[in-house]
Amino acid sequence: MAILLVIVEHTLYFRFGLHTDLGKLGVTLFFVLSGFLITGLLDSELRNTGDISLSAFYTRRVLRLFPALFVFLGVVCLLIQSRLVADTPWYAVIACFLYRSEERRVGK
What we know:
The protein is mainly alpha-helical. The chain has helices at residues 2-16, 22-49, 54-81, 90-97.
């Protein structure tokens, strides 16, 4: 539902020029659900083992998230290289890989 709200917001904006708060609602819903699910995982680990290992938690997160990140970046690189995507500079791909903002500050 959260993703659908963001997609609807983008579709309304880019297709019809309409701006709503559906995207903000979708992002908020995503973070609420993520917090609920992550808290549930940590609570389950605490009940099962009597402790929470943050290093094990973050290792599991990395193993879950990085494969999708690498596939996404690989596809973006192929699209840029084949010139099917022309509005994404290479520094944005590198910033995405490093989990950084690709915003460039002009004059600083």
